[in-house]
## 1
Amino acid sequence: MNSLIYYKNCASTQDEIIDFINTNYLIEDFLAVYTFNQTKGRGQYGNIWETTPEENLAYSFAIKTKNISVSDILFNYYTAILIRDFIANLTQTGVKIKWPNDLILKNKKICGMLFEKRKNYFIVGIGINISQKNFENLPKAGSLLTQTHLNFDLKTFTESLHQYILKILTQKPIPDNVVEIYNTHLYKKNEIAVFEKNKIRQNGMIENADENGNLWVDLENEGLQKFFHKEIELLY
């Protein structure tokens, strides 16, 4: 089977790849699907991933858990690092990781990721805004085009991304210092920022993310605390 499958359109690349697994379809150690027209994309923790047809990429891959040597959380971190590195190298522009796994380019979200575990597979959905120009209803979002003024052919971009992910995840061991690398690229780390907790806003500073998936924030009114996803929001 081809390890990369293209859909002219689909509701969700994540659901398509899960269907392969749920129907006991025999797949390889690594399988990916993609489309440039996803109609019902899913984001992390029940969020919706909105996309404009033929301007952005929806890409999902499945890899057998036996081939991943780290915890679920560290694999989440590591995948975010890989996509960050790919985009940063391609655009020659600084890209940051907004905890836990959004990618920020010049203060705009250009990529979101969805991590799931089904049977013996990790399933990772990656949405990347590539050529979209209009974000009138999404003021925090941007694309590679709006943030770098660089144009990319969608198919060439996808094939390059796929080969990059495939090579690294199937041929190279995951390093021991994933958390350290992740924190090196953490958005707003050691910078004063505004956070919202229980609908109350206050200043704070991100100290680090830990191996358990927590974000440590030194809040102006409450001191240093750790938070899991959805327990605090970084406003940007």
## 2
Amino acid sequence: MDIIISNSSGQPIYEQICRQIKGAVATGRLKPGEALPSIRALARDLRISVITTKRAYEDLELQKEAGLREIEEHLQAAVDLGRQCGLTLEDLDNMLRVLSEEE
């Protein structure tokens, strides 16, 4: 994975790393389930502190956790509404599968 950092940028290095990893995911250069370099390997490759790469990875993990919580809230709302409409779990599962295939 190619990450380019700029020491002259006004943006902290850990934020540059986060932004570029998110960009790689968004553009498909980084596939779901594909492993990121280890913290030490990335620090070595970029010639930066392990602490900096650790912070970037921790920030990405926190953002992932926040996203998962939000998804859970939306799914719970969908389950609640589905119950009110008399839908089964299988009905909701089918709807989710159809929606995910439409992309």
## 3
Amino acid sequence: MTIEDISLKTGLSIGHISQIERDITSPTLNAFQLLASVLGVNISYFFSDVEEKEKEGRYITRGDDRKFLTFSSGFKECQINTSAISNLQVLCSTFEPGAAVDEPYSHDGEECGMVISGVFEITIDGEPYLLKDGDGFSFPSEKPHSYRNPGESQAVVVWAMTPPSY
């Protein structure tokens, strides 16, 4: 599939797709979802290609071997689970101050999480909730949701979702 084909199917410009491909810019979460859909892959396809170690790789991921996605909206995520499980996904997200996914989105499944550090605001079905260290959340993913870091320092959130959306 050419960049032009992908552009036509996603509505993203050829130049923007080229910049993403060359790692000049990071896409938004919505752009990642569009690209994954058009390419017929899960978003996890875009995580760095890290070889799983022979003995531990199926069940253990060492901190230095984490797979990261960095989004243009100011946050990055690493997948905690290995490929040994396929019905649950666990992510650790780091949000820089002001980082946000402002456009509400929804998908099949359920999510829950906990704020490890910082301040985190999640809006679920139009209702905003301000969370801090140790606070948790859970909701059906079919509810439109968005989130942001309104604080002055990084926010770290660990969450699980089923089925995996990445």
